[in-house]
What we know:
Bound molecules: adenosine-5'-triphosphate
Number of strands: 13
Shape: globular
Distance between the termini: 22 Å
Radius of gyration: 18 Å
Strand order of the largest sheet: 5-4-1-8-9-10-11-12-13
Amino acid sequence: MTDSRIVVAGSLNADLTIYCERLPLPGETLHGSGFAVNPGGKGANQAVAASRLGGRVTLVGAVGRDANGEMLVASTAGAGVDVSHVRRVAEPTGVAVISVEDSGENSIIISAGANGTLSPDAMDPALFDGAGVVCLCLEVPLGTVRAAAQAGHDAGATVLLNLSPYAPVGAALAHLTDVLLVNAHEASQFLGGLDMPPADAPVADWLAAAGAFAGRGLARVLVTLGAAGSVVLDAANTAEPVVRIAPTKVVAVDTTGAGDAFTGAVAARLAAGDSLAAAARYASVAAALAATRKGTQAAYPSAAEVATATP
Ligand code: ATP
């Protein structure tokens, strides 16, 4: 088994989470049932998820010189992630204000803060030397994501792009991306409004979606479908271009960061030498376990827990 290094270039946010019976309507004020400040941000979450599952992870990012920044660096380092390339800057640490309702559904507003200062020059090619996987999200400036994708590509790494939160990406970034990770909503936005089929739709429907992605330069795509599971689209795999992965049945308590758990797990397993479909199957179990516990990073499972939960 190979065990290559993973570089995650992305955001660190303090998650300010309030729990409530249901999400408020516009203009409505509700009483919540608890409040917590937790480490988060897609980059940090994906780095921690991959590290917990045995990945060797370097996180490149930026935090402010404030208490939230200290908390984030300490928690990420505590999960075994190399944080020596997380910059301390004058801007405040990024924040996400999160509401989670009893069903596990959430709504999130982000203030980028320090994440917005992560510039392309932070993507020193030397950082990517020997990396097997580069994991990217869109909570840092697009030019920086492009620079990281280019550096990863030049180093021969597999470049994963989690297209979240959705932003239009140009053809250059799409062509540097080896594996795109999207939920159904992001997929539809990326494809100009083309809706994803249901998880159990005929293979032909998913082949049409695969064709639409391939037309945009993306041959390998993982579409996550929440509690309905996920679908692997791999145009290069002529024997099995569509693999539908049934969800792992769990009682969801908080699905915040389930997508990051999935992405981090895919990164860890690709770095360990798994095929895309095997990595996605593993990630499906890891992300389902993450949904059974409150919070994001604190909810992410170890490799031993995933092994126990794997049918
Ligand atoms: P988020 O933005 O909240 O992190 P997302 O929209 O990016 O999530 P989802 O598609 O909701 O991502 O979830 C990612 C994966 O997590 C799913 O493909 C599935 O494998 C797993 N998952 C999420 N919710 C559940 C659930 N209720 N039960 C089982 N698995 C789940």
